[in-house]
Amino acid sequence: MRRSLRLLVGGGALATALLGTAVPAQAFAAPIVLSAGHVDVVDVAYEDGVLELGLHDESVEPDVERDPDDVVLLVKRAARTTVPDNPSFSFLGGAGARVWVLPEIQNEELLWPGLSAEEIEDGVFTGDAVTAKVEKVTGPGRLAVWTEDAVGTPHVLVNSGDGLPDALSLAAGAHQHASWGFQKAGVYLIKVRATATLAATGDTVTSEPAVYKVVVQP
Is this model's pTM higher than 0.70 or not? Predict the structure, then answer.
């Protein structure tokens, strides 16, 4: 893990390229490494007229809101598996290829990444909906986020391998989980921005972008 974090510290230029702005050195100085437990990675809030993206860490007691700049999400070696021999999963790569998966159903040894708009009150946005848009993924392989139905058929929400941006629709007050798959080991930077339409005025509000940092162990 120590080597992976050194790689991440050296990746500040990548984050700068994603954001188009300078990234504070302290964002990479002493990251909080989260490697197991429930974490709402994409956590959308609306306060004082500002739409914001954060990270809600429920792996600690009491739970805490964190700035994505301060956090490294560690995908442990235990997440390593192979792509199923099923054409429906070809978005992950060829059957039998290595892939790292944080599953939709909790595995207590791994991170359990959620998507949340629980802090958004009903009636604030048109359709009580917020969109979290994955704008860019930088890393050694593709990122995919998907859910599965009762018979195991995947519904792909994000696939960096077939072009971005991809949009995640979140319902106000709601919370959901999905599987997150990483094609290769290494460091990923995932740029996300949230948007919504105010019900009262029809105006669109947009968050500042957040870059989530992920280290996948080989």
Answer: yes
